[in-house]
Amino acid sequence: MELSERITQITAGGSDGWDVFYRARRMVSEGHAISELTIGEHDIRTDPSILQAMDLSARDGHTGYAMVPGTDLLRDTVAARVQMRTGVPTTRHNVLITPGGQSALFAAHVAVCDPGDVGLYLDPYYATYPGTIRGVGAIARPVQTNAEDAFQPRSEQIETHADGAVSLLINTPNNPTGVVYSRKTIEDIADLCRRRDLWLISDEVYDTQVWQGEHVSPRALPGMAERTLVVGSMSKSHAMTGSRCGWVVGPEEVIAHLINLATHTTYGVPGFIQDAASFALNAGTGLEEDIAAPFRRRRALALETLAKQNIVGLVPAQGAMYLMLDIRATGHTGEEFANALLDTRAIAVMPGESFGQAAAGHVRVAMTVDDDRFATALKTLCEFAATLAGRRAAE
Protein backbone atom coordinates (compact mmCIF):
# COMPACT_ATOMS: atom_id res chain seq x y z
CA MET A 1 0.00 0.00 0.00
CA GLU A 2 1.12 3.56 -0.67
CA LEU A 3 0.28 6.90 0.89
CA SER A 4 -1.37 9.56 -1.20
CA GLU A 5 0.84 11.82 -3.28
CA ARG A 6 -0.96 14.78 -1.75
CA ILE A 7 0.18 13.94 1.78
CA THR A 8 3.73 12.93 0.87
CA GLN A 9 4.32 16.03 -1.26
CA ILE A 10 3.17 18.71 1.17
CA THR A 11 6.79 19.85 1.54
CA ALA A 12 7.57 18.81 -2.05
CA GLY A 13 9.59 15.89 -0.72
CA GLY A 14 12.32 18.09 0.77
CA SER A 15 13.22 19.95 3.95
CA ASP A 16 10.92 22.67 5.21
CA GLY A 17 13.99 24.91 5.61
CA TRP A 18 13.80 25.19 9.39
CA ASP A 19 16.89 23.13 10.25
CA VAL A 20 18.54 25.96 12.22
CA PHE A 21 15.45 26.34 14.40
CA TYR A 22 15.27 22.60 15.12
CA ARG A 23 18.97 22.53 15.97
CA ALA A 24 18.62 25.48 18.33
CA ARG A 25 15.74 23.77 20.12
CA ARG A 26 17.83 20.61 20.54
CA MET A 27 20.63 22.68 22.03
CA VAL A 28 18.22 24.28 24.49
CA SER A 29 16.91 20.84 25.52
CA GLU A 30 20.51 19.79 26.15
CA GLY A 31 20.98 22.65 28.58
CA HIS A 32 22.67 25.27 26.40
CA ALA A 33 21.76 28.93 26.96
CA ILE A 34 20.50 30.09 23.56
CA SER A 35 18.96 33.46 22.74
CA GLU A 36 16.07 32.32 20.57
CA LEU A 37 14.98 34.94 18.06
CA THR A 38 13.30 32.44 15.78
CA ILE A 39 9.53 32.02 15.88
CA GLY A 40 6.67 34.46 16.40
CA GLU A 41 5.75 33.46 19.94
CA HIS A 42 5.08 36.27 22.40
CA ASP A 43 7.39 36.31 25.42
CA ILE A 44 4.45 37.63 27.47
CA ARG A 45 1.65 35.06 27.65
CA THR A 46 -2.12 35.47 27.30
CA ASP A 47 -3.51 38.25 29.49
CA PRO A 48 -4.92 36.96 32.82
CA SER A 49 -8.27 38.65 32.14
CA ILE A 50 -8.68 36.55 28.98
CA LEU A 51 -7.75 33.39 30.85
CA GLN A 52 -10.26 34.26 33.55
CA ALA A 53 -13.00 34.65 30.90
CA MET A 54 -11.99 31.28 29.46
CA ASP A 55 -12.08 29.64 32.89
CA LEU A 56 -15.47 31.14 33.77
CA SER A 57 -16.96 29.95 30.48
CA ALA A 58 -15.63 26.44 30.94
CA ARG A 59 -16.84 26.26 34.56
CA ASP A 60 -20.21 27.56 33.40
CA GLY A 61 -20.53 24.51 31.18
CA HIS A 62 -19.49 25.72 27.73
CA THR A 63 -17.34 22.61 27.25
CA GLY A 64 -19.55 20.61 24.90
CA TYR A 65 -19.87 20.84 21.15
CA ALA A 66 -20.07 24.44 20.03
CA MET A 67 -21.86 25.59 16.89
CA VAL A 68 -19.71 24.54 13.93
CA PRO A 69 -19.68 27.98 12.23
CA GLY A 70 -18.74 29.58 15.53
CA THR A 71 -20.90 31.00 18.27
CA ASP A 72 -23.24 33.79 17.25
CA LEU A 73 -21.52 36.00 19.81
CA LEU A 74 -18.02 35.55 18.37
CA ARG A 75 -19.14 35.71 14.73
CA ASP A 76 -21.00 38.93 15.47
CA THR A 77 -18.00 40.32 17.33
CA VAL A 78 -15.59 39.51 14.51
CA ALA A 79 -18.01 40.91 11.93
CA ALA A 80 -18.37 44.16 13.86
CA ARG A 81 -14.61 44.46 14.26
CA VAL A 82 -13.98 43.90 10.55
CA GLN A 83 -16.70 46.35 9.55
CA MET A 84 -15.34 49.00 11.92
CA ARG A 85 -11.77 48.60 10.64
CA THR A 86 -12.60 48.42 6.91
CA GLY A 87 -15.97 50.10 6.41
CA VAL A 88 -17.24 47.04 4.52
CA PRO A 89 -20.71 45.82 5.63
CA THR A 90 -20.08 42.51 7.40
CA THR A 91 -22.39 40.17 9.31
CA ARG A 92 -22.00 36.82 11.01
CA HIS A 93 -22.93 35.19 7.69
CA ASN A 94 -19.61 36.46 6.31
CA VAL A 95 -17.63 34.80 9.13
CA LEU A 96 -16.47 31.25 9.86
CA ILE A 97 -14.59 30.63 13.11
CA THR A 98 -11.68 28.21 12.67
CA PRO A 99 -9.10 26.44 14.88
CA GLY A 100 -6.49 29.14 14.29
CA GLY A 101 -5.30 31.11 11.29
CA GLN A 102 -3.60 28.09 9.72
CA SER A 103 -6.89 26.22 9.54
CA ALA A 104 -8.42 29.33 7.97
CA LEU A 105 -5.70 29.42 5.31
CA PHE A 106 -6.33 25.79 4.47
CA ALA A 107 -10.10 26.25 4.34
CA ALA A 108 -9.79 29.30 2.10
CA HIS A 109 -7.73 27.37 -0.43
CA VAL A 110 -10.10 24.40 -0.30
CA ALA A 111 -12.87 26.85 -1.17
CA VAL A 112 -11.26 28.25 -4.32
CA CYS A 113 -8.75 25.67 -5.63
CA ASP A 114 -9.54 22.37 -7.34
CA PRO A 115 -6.86 19.67 -7.62
CA GLY A 116 -4.43 20.71 -10.35
CA ASP A 117 -5.30 24.41 -10.14
CA VAL A 118 -2.50 26.91 -9.64
CA GLY A 119 -2.37 28.91 -6.42
CA LEU A 120 0.02 31.87 -6.37
CA TYR A 121 1.89 33.06 -3.29
CA LEU A 122 4.59 35.67 -2.74
CA ASP A 123 8.21 34.87 -1.92
CA PRO A 124 9.40 35.48 0.83
CA TYR A 125 6.53 33.62 2.44
CA TYR A 126 5.39 32.26 5.77
CA ALA A 127 6.68 28.71 6.00
CA THR A 128 3.34 26.90 5.62
CA TYR A 129 2.09 28.70 2.51
CA PRO A 130 3.31 26.37 -0.24
CA GLY A 131 2.45 23.27 1.78
CA THR A 132 -1.05 24.58 2.43
CA ILE A 133 -1.64 25.01 -1.30
CA ARG A 134 -0.19 21.59 -2.09
CA GLY A 135 -2.26 20.11 0.72
CA VAL A 136 -5.50 20.93 -1.11
CA GLY A 137 -4.14 19.29 -4.27
CA ALA A 138 -3.28 22.53 -6.05
CA ILE A 139 0.01 23.58 -7.63
CA ALA A 140 1.91 26.07 -5.45
CA ARG A 141 3.55 28.69 -7.69
CA PRO A 142 5.80 31.31 -6.04
CA VAL A 143 6.21 34.87 -7.25
CA GLN A 144 9.48 36.39 -6.12
CA THR A 145 9.58 39.91 -4.76
CA ASN A 146 12.82 41.93 -4.63
CA ALA A 147 14.88 43.08 -1.67
CA GLU A 148 15.68 46.21 -3.68
CA ASP A 149 11.92 47.01 -3.69
CA ALA A 150 11.76 46.40 0.09
CA PHE A 151 9.83 43.24 -0.86
CA GLN A 152 6.82 45.26 -2.00
CA PRO A 153 5.26 43.02 -4.68
CA ARG A 154 4.86 44.41 -8.18
CA SER A 155 1.68 43.53 -10.02
CA GLU A 156 3.61 43.07 -13.28
CA GLN A 157 5.75 40.40 -11.60
CA ILE A 158 2.64 38.61 -10.38
CA GLU A 159 1.03 38.85 -13.80
CA THR A 160 3.92 37.03 -15.47
CA HIS A 161 3.03 34.01 -13.29
CA ALA A 162 -0.74 34.32 -13.46
CA ASP A 163 -1.52 32.11 -16.46
CA GLY A 164 -3.68 29.24 -15.25
CA ALA A 165 -3.84 30.57 -11.70
CA VAL A 166 -7.10 30.79 -9.75
CA SER A 167 -5.89 32.39 -6.51
CA LEU A 168 -3.29 34.67 -5.00
CA LEU A 169 -2.22 34.58 -1.34
CA ILE A 170 -0.82 37.77 0.22
CA ASN A 171 0.19 38.73 3.76
CA THR A 172 0.41 42.27 5.12
CA PRO A 173 1.79 43.25 7.59
CA ASN A 174 4.20 40.66 6.33
CA ASN A 175 5.84 37.67 7.93
CA PRO A 176 8.82 37.25 7.45
CA THR A 177 9.85 40.68 6.16
CA GLY A 178 8.03 43.06 8.50
CA VAL A 179 6.94 45.10 5.48
CA VAL A 180 3.50 46.70 5.30
CA TYR A 181 2.20 46.78 1.74
CA SER A 182 1.50 50.31 0.56
CA ARG A 183 -1.95 51.40 -0.57
CA LYS A 184 -0.67 51.52 -4.15
CA THR A 185 0.65 47.97 -3.86
CA ILE A 186 -2.73 46.73 -2.61
CA GLU A 187 -4.62 48.70 -5.27
CA ASP A 188 -2.40 47.27 -8.01
CA ILE A 189 -2.91 43.73 -6.69
CA ALA A 190 -6.67 44.29 -6.53
CA ASP A 191 -6.69 45.55 -10.12
CA LEU A 192 -4.75 42.47 -11.22
CA CYS A 193 -7.17 40.14 -9.42
CA ARG A 194 -10.15 41.79 -11.08
CA ARG A 195 -8.57 41.67 -14.55
CA ARG A 196 -7.33 38.09 -14.24
CA ASP A 197 -10.39 36.84 -12.35
CA LEU A 198 -8.33 35.66 -9.35
CA TRP A 199 -9.52 34.92 -5.87
CA LEU A 200 -7.47 36.91 -3.35
CA ILE A 201 -6.67 35.29 -0.01
CA SER A 202 -5.47 37.99 2.37
CA ASP A 203 -3.66 36.88 5.54
CA GLU A 204 -4.13 39.79 7.96
CA VAL A 205 -3.20 38.21 11.28
CA TYR A 206 -0.73 41.03 12.07
CA ASP A 207 -3.18 43.88 11.40
CA THR A 208 -2.81 45.22 14.96
CA GLN A 209 0.98 45.46 14.65
CA VAL A 210 1.61 48.40 12.32
CA TRP A 211 4.52 50.66 13.27
CA GLN A 212 4.74 52.76 10.12
CA GLY A 213 2.25 53.39 7.31
CA GLU A 214 -1.28 51.98 7.27
CA HIS A 215 -2.86 48.58 6.92
CA VAL A 216 -5.12 48.41 3.88
CA SER A 217 -7.40 45.39 3.65
CA PRO A 218 -8.00 44.59 -0.03
CA ARG A 219 -11.56 43.50 0.80
CA ALA A 220 -12.34 47.21 1.30
CA LEU A 221 -11.42 48.16 -2.29
CA PRO A 222 -14.03 48.46 -5.07
CA GLY A 223 -15.13 45.14 -6.52
CA MET A 224 -13.01 43.10 -4.08
CA ALA A 225 -15.43 42.01 -1.34
CA GLU A 226 -16.89 39.37 -3.64
CA ARG A 227 -13.50 37.86 -4.53
CA THR A 228 -11.52 38.25 -1.28
CA LEU A 229 -11.20 35.83 1.64
CA VAL A 230 -9.61 37.42 4.70
CA VAL A 231 -7.79 35.28 7.26
CA GLY A 232 -7.66 36.55 10.85
CA SER A 233 -6.60 35.18 14.19
CA MET A 234 -6.43 35.85 17.91
CA SER A 235 -2.87 34.51 18.02
CA LYS A 236 -0.84 37.65 17.33
CA SER A 237 -3.27 40.40 18.30
CA HIS A 238 -4.06 38.93 21.73
CA ALA A 239 -1.15 36.56 22.44
CA MET A 240 -3.50 33.55 22.22
CA THR A 241 -1.29 31.37 20.01
CA GLY A 242 -2.10 28.12 21.81
CA SER A 243 -5.83 28.78 22.01
CA ARG A 244 -6.19 28.15 18.26
CA CYS A 245 -8.93 30.60 17.36
CA GLY A 246 -9.07 32.24 13.94
CA TRP A 247 -11.53 33.05 11.18
CA VAL A 248 -12.26 33.43 7.50
CA VAL A 249 -14.23 36.46 6.33
CA GLY A 250 -15.72 36.32 2.84
CA PRO A 251 -18.85 36.25 0.68
CA GLU A 252 -21.85 34.54 2.27
CA GLU A 253 -21.95 31.77 -0.33
CA VAL A 254 -18.31 30.88 0.30
CA ILE A 255 -18.79 30.86 4.07
CA ALA A 256 -21.84 28.59 3.71
CA HIS A 257 -19.72 26.04 1.86
CA LEU A 258 -16.89 26.40 4.36
CA ILE A 259 -19.31 25.65 7.18
CA ASN A 260 -20.02 22.39 5.38
CA LEU A 261 -16.27 21.74 5.16
CA ALA A 262 -15.85 22.45 8.89
CA THR A 263 -18.66 20.01 9.68
CA HIS A 264 -16.63 17.28 7.98
CA THR A 265 -13.19 18.27 9.31
CA THR A 266 -12.68 20.36 12.43
CA TYR A 267 -16.25 20.34 13.76
CA GLY A 268 -15.73 23.76 15.24
CA VAL A 269 -13.78 25.43 18.04
CA PRO A 270 -14.39 24.84 21.77
CA GLY A 271 -17.02 27.18 23.15
CA PHE A 272 -14.98 28.35 26.13
CA ILE A 273 -12.17 29.38 23.74
CA GLN A 274 -14.65 31.33 21.65
CA ASP A 275 -16.10 33.04 24.71
CA ALA A 276 -12.60 34.10 25.75
CA ALA A 277 -11.96 35.41 22.23
CA SER A 278 -15.22 37.39 22.34
CA PHE A 279 -14.20 38.86 25.68
CA ALA A 280 -10.75 39.79 24.34
CA LEU A 281 -12.08 41.46 21.20
CA ASN A 282 -14.67 43.39 23.21
CA ALA A 283 -11.97 44.56 25.64
CA GLY A 284 -11.07 47.20 23.07
CA THR A 285 -7.95 48.46 21.35
CA GLY A 286 -6.18 49.23 24.61
CA LEU A 287 -5.51 45.55 25.26
CA GLU A 288 -4.32 45.06 21.68
CA GLU A 289 -1.96 48.02 22.04
CA ASP A 290 -0.56 46.63 25.28
CA ILE A 291 0.19 43.32 23.56
CA ALA A 292 1.81 45.09 20.60
CA ALA A 293 3.82 47.51 22.76
CA PRO A 294 6.89 45.28 23.37
CA PHE A 295 7.43 44.85 19.64
CA ARG A 296 7.05 48.57 18.97
CA ARG A 297 9.59 49.21 21.73
CA ARG A 298 12.06 46.61 20.46
CA ARG A 299 11.78 47.93 16.92
CA ALA A 300 12.92 51.32 18.27
CA LEU A 301 15.83 49.63 20.03
CA ALA A 302 16.74 47.87 16.78
CA LEU A 303 16.69 51.08 14.76
CA GLU A 304 19.02 52.67 17.29
CA THR A 305 21.44 49.74 17.25
CA LEU A 306 21.50 49.30 13.49
CA ALA A 307 22.08 53.02 12.90
CA LYS A 308 25.47 52.69 14.63
CA GLN A 309 26.92 50.30 12.03
CA ASN A 310 26.98 49.87 8.26
CA ILE A 311 27.31 46.13 7.64
CA VAL A 312 23.84 44.81 8.48
CA GLY A 313 21.01 46.34 6.46
CA LEU A 314 17.40 46.57 7.60
CA VAL A 315 14.43 45.91 5.37
CA PRO A 316 11.83 48.57 6.34
CA ALA A 317 10.48 47.32 9.68
CA GLN A 318 6.95 48.65 9.31
CA GLY A 319 4.88 45.99 11.08
CA ALA A 320 4.65 42.56 12.72
CA MET A 321 7.09 41.17 15.28
CA TYR A 322 10.06 40.58 12.99
CA LEU A 323 13.11 42.25 11.48
CA MET A 324 14.50 41.12 8.14
CA LEU A 325 18.22 41.85 8.13
CA ASP A 326 20.39 42.01 5.02
CA ILE A 327 23.72 40.30 5.78
CA ARG A 328 24.98 40.00 2.20
CA ALA A 329 27.95 42.26 3.02
CA THR A 330 29.39 39.35 5.03
CA GLY A 331 29.63 37.21 1.89
CA HIS A 332 27.55 34.49 3.56
CA THR A 333 24.15 33.08 2.76
CA GLY A 334 21.47 33.49 5.36
CA GLU A 335 21.76 29.83 6.25
CA GLU A 336 25.56 29.98 6.64
CA PHE A 337 25.31 33.11 8.76
CA ALA A 338 22.56 31.71 10.99
CA ASN A 339 24.42 28.46 11.62
CA ALA A 340 27.67 30.26 12.42
CA LEU A 341 25.88 32.74 14.69
CA LEU A 342 24.29 29.86 16.60
CA ASP A 343 27.54 27.93 16.91
CA THR A 344 29.77 30.84 17.95
CA ARG A 345 27.44 33.32 19.70
CA ALA A 346 24.55 31.10 20.92
CA ILE A 347 22.00 33.25 19.11
CA ALA A 348 19.33 31.58 16.98
CA VAL A 349 17.78 33.43 14.03
CA MET A 350 15.98 32.18 10.95
CA PRO A 351 17.80 32.12 7.58
CA GLY A 352 16.04 34.14 4.92
CA GLU A 353 16.16 31.05 2.74
CA SER A 354 13.75 29.36 5.16
CA PHE A 355 11.08 31.58 3.63
CA GLY A 356 12.00 31.16 -0.04
CA GLN A 357 14.78 32.33 -2.30
CA ALA A 358 13.87 36.02 -2.54
CA ALA A 359 15.33 36.61 0.94
CA ALA A 360 18.59 34.74 0.33
CA GLY A 361 21.41 36.58 2.07
CA HIS A 362 19.07 37.76 4.81
CA VAL A 363 18.08 36.53 8.27
CA ARG A 364 14.80 37.01 10.10
CA VAL A 365 14.95 38.12 13.71
CA ALA A 366 11.88 37.66 15.92
CA MET A 367 11.59 40.42 18.55
CA THR A 368 10.33 37.94 21.11
CA VAL A 369 12.69 38.11 24.09
CA ASP A 370 12.84 40.79 26.78
CA ASP A 371 14.21 44.20 25.84
CA ASP A 372 17.66 43.90 27.41
CA ARG A 373 18.30 40.44 26.05
CA PHE A 374 17.03 41.50 22.63
CA ALA A 375 19.25 44.60 22.50
CA THR A 376 22.31 42.58 23.57
CA ALA A 377 21.64 39.83 21.02
CA LEU A 378 21.15 42.30 18.17
CA LYS A 379 24.34 44.17 19.06
CA THR A 380 26.23 40.87 19.16
CA LEU A 381 24.76 39.90 15.78
CA CYS A 382 25.98 43.16 14.26
CA GLU A 383 29.46 42.73 15.75
CA PHE A 384 29.60 39.18 14.39
CA ALA A 385 28.56 40.39 10.94
CA ALA A 386 31.28 43.05 11.05
CA THR A 387 33.87 40.40 11.89
CA LEU A 388 32.79 38.26 8.92
CA ALA A 389 32.78 41.26 6.59
CA GLY A 390 36.28 42.19 7.78
CA ARG A 391 37.56 38.71 7.04
CA ARG A 392 36.00 38.88 3.61
CA ALA A 393 37.70 42.21 2.87
CA ALA A 394 41.05 40.83 4.01
CA GLU A 395 40.93 37.82 1.67
TrEMBL record:
Pfam families recorded: Aminotran_1_2
PANTHER family reported for this sequence: ASPARTATE AMINOTRANSFERASE (PTHR46383:SF1)
SUPFAM superfamilies: PLP-dependent transferases (SSF53383)
Catalytic activity: L-aspartate + 2-oxoglutarate = oxaloacetate + L-glutamate
Cited CDD domains: AAT_like
EC number: 2.6.1.1
Swiss-Prot/TrEMBL keywords: Aminotransferase, Pyridoxal phosphate, Transferase
InterPro entries (alphabetical): Aminotransferase_I/II_large (IPR004839), AspAT/PAT-like (IPR050596), PyrdxlP-dep_Trfase (IPR015424), PyrdxlP-dep_Trfase_major (IPR015421)
Molecular function GO labels: transaminase activity
Obligatory cofactor(s): pyridoxal 5'-phosphate
Family under the similarity heading: Belongs to the class-I pyridoxal-phosphate-dependent aminotransferase family.
Enzyme class, spelled out: transferase
Coiled-coil residue spans: none
Annotated Aminotransferase class I/classII large domain residues: 37-379
Protein name, entry field: aspartate transaminase
